[in-house]
Amino acid sequence: MAVLQTYQVQTAKEDLTDVLVNITPTKTPLLSSLKSVKMYGLPHETSVDDLTTPVANTNKWVQGDDAVEEEQVMPEKVLSWPQIFRKHPKVAGTTQAIRIAAMKNAYSYQVTKKTKELGLDMEFALLNGAGNPGAAGTPTEIKGALPGITSNVLDGQDAGAPTPLTEERYNDLLELIWNAGGDPDVTYATGTLKRVISSFTGGAAKNVEVVSKKLVNSVDVYEGDFGLQRIVAHRMMPVGTLMAMEQQYWALAWLRKTKHEPLAKTGDAVRGMILAELGLERRQEKASGKYINVSR
């Protein structure tokens, strides 16, 4: 007698789990860690100044000398433009009416998902945006941290190939920033370069208790000649690049915080818009630095 096997059944009910797993990376280190300020106009202006650093012991005077004319230097303005970020959830009325595994409301799910995607878009721009003041018909664009760092830059390219990152080269970058007056406290790197930093032994915080995760084999913190550095693996960092930041000199400048706005119905669908308008305030880029074209 022939046996009826499942392969012959064309009308079996679908067994779809109600547990929905979304593995898309939603970590946004810059968006989550930088302080926020309010933006009130376009462009957003930040005053930046430097202290004159002595290179010789010249500030010495004879008793009774008169006051002299001295150069007076005023702060410079650094301009930032906000970028408009949008997502547009739209779900047909029929889709709203049916039962869908793992979600109670299809539109609410799309709003949640697209809000996370908006955060990823903002994170990418905060790191990599080229910067554009915009014009009629041209959107403004954030000038991200990497393009915004211009003073302390090391390039490891050697005869057209990247140079392997070593502990000495990493400290060269920290020293360059330190010499410019900065005290970097966070290093963002690709996953590959974070693994390289995890192999460093000279300055790793080896003598700190295990519970703080400051272990040589998993360096979340690196302690060297130029202070304590928190090491963060960043998925959106360009290949062969790491960035050391003094984070107090960077801020999120919000013209409009992230908000979901329902839109008028124009047919048999529920639709809306998730919108944010955000800029990156660069208070003193010389307190940070970047190393490009380095490899494992």
Short précis:
The protein is α+β, with helices and mostly antiparallel strands and 296 residues long. The chain has helices spanning 29-33, 93-97, 106-128, 145-148, 167-179, 191-198; strands spanning 35-38, 44-48, 76-80, 83-87, 90-92, 130-132, 141-143, 153-155, 163-164, 186-189, 214-215, 218-219, 221-224, 227-233, 242-245, 250-262, 269-282, 289-292, 294-295. A hairpin with a 2-residue loop joins strand 11 (214-215) and strand 12 (218-219).
Layout of SSEs?
Elements: H1 29-33, E1 35-38, E2 44-48, E3 76-80, E4 83-87, E5 90-92, H2 93-97, H3 106-128, E6 130-132, E7 141-143, H4 145-148, E8 153-155, E9 163-164, H5 167-179, E10 186-189, H6 191-198, E11 214-215, E12 218-219, E13 221-224, E14 227-233, E15 242-245, E16 250-262, E17 269-282, E18 289-292, E19 294-295
User: What can be said about the biggest beta sheet?
Assistant: 6 strands, mixed
Task: Assign the structural class, choosing from mainly alpha, mainly beta, alpha/beta, alpha+beta, or little secondary structure.
Answer: alpha+beta
Number of helices, counting only DSSP H or I runs of 4 residues or more: 6
Following the backbone from N to C, one meets helices and strands in this order, namely HEEEEEHHEEHEEHEHEEEEEEEEE
Could you tell me how far the N terminus lies from the C terminus, measured between alpha carbons in angstroms?
64 Å
Round the mean pLDDT to the nearest integer and report it.
86
| Residue share in β-strands | 25-35%
The percent of residues in helical segments reads 10-25%
Unreliable residue runs: 205-219
Number of strands: 19
Shape descriptor reads flat
Assigned CATH architecture: Alpha-Beta Complex
Count structural domains: 1
Widest sheet: strand ordering? 8-18-15-10-14-13
Radius of gyration: 26 Å
| CATH topology (fold) name | phage-related protein like fold
Which CATH C-level class is it? Alpha Beta
